Amino acid sequence: MRRPLVVGNWKMNGSREQNTELLQSILGLLPESEKVELAVCAPFVYIDQVSEQVANTSLALGGQDVSVHVSGAYTGEIAAPMLAEFGCRYAIVGHSERRQYHNESNLLVGQKALSAIQGGLTPIICVGESLEQREIGSALDVIGSQLQSVKSVIGDQGLAKSVIAYEPVWAIGTGLTATPEQAQEVHQFIREQLGSIADGISILYGGSVKAANAADLFAQPDIDGALVGGASLVAEEFINIAKAV
Ligand code: PEP
Q: Using CA atoms, how far apart are residues 84 and 241, in angstroms rounded to an integer?
């Protein structure tokens, strides 16, 4: 019922030349089977370039963030309809790096998810606990309240049009990965929180996913794919993660 999804988050990496090289390699290795959907989330300035290169392929495109506003005097912001105009299907919202370095609150993340949906995009809503929160046993409480805040803004109707990404902050870019059991425990909890609409919602895992650990993670019943940072910058790794689904 849920089609597996593997999304590459390029973060603030790339150049026109590097993007072309990476995309050509990814497109050359893209599995023919449509069992898995693949997407890349490029820096805003490269959205146009990537959009042209993935046109007429099965590789989808997304932004790494989105404004809560549709247009107007919001210097530096990018609106959802702008991303949609360039063929984006997704927008990541609430990535822990934005929560941490840009003080994004749970409520703002909900508003960004709403703005993405209203602009015709699917938000990839990131949730996850810090190491300290895990160590004191409050991981599920933290994730529950992150989800609740988003739900208070977009409701079940909005959640049904979203993808959730569980990304333990301590596993992002650190080489540490949640064990498949740790990840499954949280994914199952998230699914329970989603209630009656849960079956239709994809829940991705993110945090140092590589080709070598992907299959064990994807074998878990509530893990529907991955949000991949570092490994998405290496075409073979990225494709092998998708093949592990
Ligand atoms: C991410 O940025 O969402 C991420 C999971 O990064 P990495 O795969 O590098 O840990």
A: 27
C-alpha to C-alpha distance for 178 and 13, rounded to whole angstroms? 25
Residue 165 CA to ligand 1 center (angstroms) comes to: 11
Residue 228: which of 17, 214, 85, 187 has the closest Cα? 214
Neighbours of 180 (CB within 10 A): 18
> Which pLDDT does position 32 carry in this prediction?
85
**Catalytically annotated residues:** 95, 167
H or E element at residue 186: helix 180-194
With a 6 Å cutoff on the Cβ, whether 228 touches ligand 1 is yes
Q: Provide the pLDDT confidence category of residue 61 given band limits of 50, 70 and 90.
A: very high
Rounded (5°) CA angle 30-126-228? 30
pLDDT of 177 reads: 86
Q: Which atom of ligand 1 is closest in space to residue 167's alpha carbon?
A: 5
> In ligand 1, which atom is closest to the CA atom of 126?
3
Q: How confident is the model at residue 173 (pLDDT cuts 50, 70, 90)?
A: confident
Q: Is 167 helix (H, G, I), strand (E, B) or coil?
A: coil
Q: Which atom of ligand 1 is nearest to the CA of 172?
A: 10
Gap from CA of 41 to ligand 1 centroid (Å) = 12
Amino acid 175: pLDDT: 85
